[in-house]
Amino acid sequence: MPAYALAHLRASSPHPDIITYLERIQATLDPFHGRFVIHGGALEVAEGEWPGSAVLIEFPDMEQGRAWYASPAYQDILPLRTDHIEGDVILVEGVGPDYDPVERAAKLRAEDPHGYGADSRAGQRPTA
Fold it and tell me: Any residues with CB less than 8 A from the CB of 125 and at least 6 apart, and which?
């Protein structure tokens, strides 16, 4: 199952360390089969607010993503970015090519954690 490192990068200040970080990051990704999917491209906010830019890196699985982030090579260059760009980074497991949200809904309905039984309309609590 693929996994992703997702960064929401907000306030940044131009600095030579950022250039060095960019020059060195791919070498930290290669041993873990990481590849950039999104790297600060054009961004259009469809809902809510999103100040800044987005970065998405794909890994074959969560184990590889975790190993990359914790690797000495990446930890060595990480301050080059974090000292100059404010942001948040998460590692998140993706879904496979056969993922079906209908199956996910059926599983949630079967678990029925909030009384959303078969008699209720989707997304609404049953009324008494």
Answer: 114, 115, 116
